[in-house]
Write a structure and sequence with these properties.
globular, single chain, 13 helices, three-stranded antiparallel beta sheet
């Protein structure tokens, strides 16, 4: 395959955007953004500003168009921009998205630390080295061999944990290794887990142990809670890699608890599937967990204030609905 797109200077990049209809009111400032943030990263934010050709059915997209599916119809994204779209609109959306990611990382850090304690305390009560013992974990996780690898999920998890231990430069790891040797007790080794290692071990716990931790957070079913943690890990990876978030399609979606189990979850019942596949549901989950970990946290209020700062893009047909925000959210107890 031959890659045919040529290299372009910042001036040429900006000229191309202007030719396609993007309004640039301050050329010098726009060039600074292109040099500092990059055309490709910013393009993810002006992509929703581009014209659509409507419902089409040709098998091959015309030159200058990208084909995508929405429901059962095909549409084409054109190179040209909608009327009124500006470079500054894209920058404003980028800045909002950056603030959102930073705010989420603040919440996820506290959730990760709190759940490390929950898991290590629960398993540690049974055995200081429970994470090594298949009989103390679920059969599907610790004993069932996977067809592709011939290994259990537990084997793979231990390999990941070993890499985290080797990579760690923490003094407490060196101290415990020198004084007591390996293996490390769970209340020590849990400090090297990242969100992914933590959430995968929770998913591998016995149901009774999952349920006990989940109930602390007001969720009756530990498997549903495991799906929440798995989705939050996906969210964490998006934020940690500085990827676009505000209207992202969440691939690893959380399961909803049954009606009446978690009151605020009931508000999502009857909403279109779109609202489950966007970040807002995960933001609500993060706020819920933080409310248990730290009842005095103001994080929810900070999230509400940030959402209210969403750029005015009504002229382009964009609003908080693109994040999966549902009607009446402003009246919730944040």
């Amino acid at each position: 395959m031959t890659y045919e797109k040529p290299w372009k200077s910042y001036e040429d990049q900006l000229n191309q955007l202007i030719q396609r209809g993007l309004i640039v009111t301050d050329r010098t400032k726009a060039l600074e953004y292109l040099e500092r943030i990059g055309y490709y990263r910013l393009s993810g934010y002006w992509f929703p500003f581009r014209e659509r050709s409507g419902t089409c059915c040709p098998l091959i997209a015309p030159i200058g168009r990208k084909k995508f599916k929405r429901g059962d119809t095909d549409q084409f994204v054109l190179d040209t921009f909608k009327e009124g779209a500006s470079f500054q609109n894209a920058v404003d959306l980028y800045v909002f998205d950056k603030k959102l990611r930073l705010l989420i990382m603040d919440a996820l850090e506290r959730i990760e630390i709190g759940l490390r304690v929950d898991i290590s305390h629960s398993l540690g009560k049974q055995d200081a080295f429970a994470y090594l013992k298949p009989d103390l974990l679920s059969n599907g996780f610790a004993k069932k061999l996977q067809e592709k690898t011939g290994l259990t999920q537990h084997h793979e998890w231990l390999t990941k944990q070993s890499a985290l231990i080797i990579r760690s430069k923490e003094e407490f790891i060196t101290h415990n290794k020198a004084k007591y040797g390996f293996p490390l007790p769970i209340w020590v080794v849990c400090e090297v887990w990242d969100f992914g290692a933590m959430s995968r071990l929770f998913a591998g716990m016995k149901e009774v142990d999952q349920d006990a931790i989940a109930k602390k957070y007001g969720v009756s079913n530990g498997r549903i809670f495991a799906s929440w943690l798995r989705s939050l890990n996906y969210l964490r990876n998006v934020c940690a890699h500085h990827s676009r978030l505000w209207n992202r399609n969440i691939i690893d979606q959380p399961k909803l608890s049954p009606l009446g189990d978690v009151i605020w979850v009931d508000r999502f019942d009857g909403n279109p599937p779109h609202s489950f596949a966007r970040p807002f549901l995960l933001l609500c989950i993060a706020k819920h967990l933080l409310g248990i970990i730290n009842p005095y946290s103001e994080w929810g209020k900070r999230l509400k204030l940030l959402l209210l700062e969403f750029p005015d893009l009504q002229h382009l047909g964009l609003n908080l609905a693109g994040m999966g925000v549902i009607e009446g959210w402003e009246q919730w107890d944040w």
